[in-house]
């Protein structure tokens, strides 16, 4: 009888130890899973906030380079470590909105004098590259007269100048460097036109 009780007691003790180990293992597994999920959220937020994110083109202002509904990749680090260059396609915070961007092309850099003469875009006394659709402009707007850009000021146009609200108009005007949020570098969708954005 005593031996049987002793054996039963020993057996229960073993089971209890196994349960403790299993509970500890399960607790660690849950904590590790939560940590991985938290790290993924933080990393994802960091990537979107500081590195890259997807943006969508709305409207026809960048036709035929970028079409309405195109899904694009915006590189937010481009101008943290490099200069904004002429003809870069950039994303600018939309006026009156923190959630949406306007996508346009940089044509004027700080210190440039820019105007439209007989429908042709003129920068620092020279006609611009005819490779771009804005080489002939029907509506010069503010560029009827030469505009000199100040420090950290940029002049931007939509490639489809006949249907684009951009720096030619007084409600848009010159764009400050702080308003340019990154460089549009790649088209994800649609698949048939997937690839680098022409700069």
Structure description:
The strands form 2 sheets. Strands 1, 2, 3, 4, 9, 10, 11 and 12 form an 8-stranded antiparallel sheet that branches. The protein has a 4-stranded antiparallel sheet with strand order 7-6-5-8, with no helix packed on it. By secondary structure, it is of the alpha+beta class. It is built from 2 helices and 12 strands. Residues 41-49 have low confidence and may be disordered.
Task: Briefly characterize the structure.
This protein has 199 residues and is of the alpha+beta class.
User: Radius of gyration from the CA trace?
Assistant: 29 Å
Distance between the termini: 91 Å
Major β-sheet annotation? 8 strands, antiparallel
Order of helices and strands: HEEHEEEEEEEEEE
What is the mean pLDDT? 82
> Based on helices, strands and strand pairing, what is the structural class?
alpha+beta
- The number of distinct β-strands equals 12
Number of helices: 2
Low-confidence stretches: 41-49
Question: Helical percent range?
Answer: 25-40%
The backbone outline, from C-alpha atoms, is elongated
Note the beta-strand portion: 25-35%
């Amino acid at each position: 009888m005593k031996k049987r009780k002793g054996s039963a007691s020993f057996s229960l003790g073993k089971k209890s130890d196994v349960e403790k180990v299993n509970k500890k293992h399960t607790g660690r597994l849950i904590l590790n899973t939560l940590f991985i999920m938290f790290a993924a959220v933080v990393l994802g937020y960091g990537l979107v906030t500081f590195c890259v994110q997807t943006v969508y083109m709305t409207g026809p202002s960048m036709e035929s380079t970028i079409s309405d509904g195109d899904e694009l990749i915006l590189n937010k680090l481009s101008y943290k470590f490099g200069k904004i260059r002429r003809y870069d396609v950039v994303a600018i915070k939309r006026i009156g909105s923190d959630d949406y961007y306007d996508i346009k092309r940089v044509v004027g850099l700080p210190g440039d004098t820019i105007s439209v003469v007989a429908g042709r875009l003129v920068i620092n006394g020279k006609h611009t590259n005819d490779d771009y659709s804005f080489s002939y402009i029907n509506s010069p707007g503010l560029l009827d007269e030469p505009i000199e850009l100040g420090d950290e000021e940029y002049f931007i146009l939509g490639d489809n100048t006949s249907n684009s609200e951009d720096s030619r108009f007084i409600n848009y005007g010159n764009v400050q460097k702080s308003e340019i949020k990154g460089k549009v570098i790649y088209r994800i969708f649609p698949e048939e036109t997937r690839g680098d954005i022409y700069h």
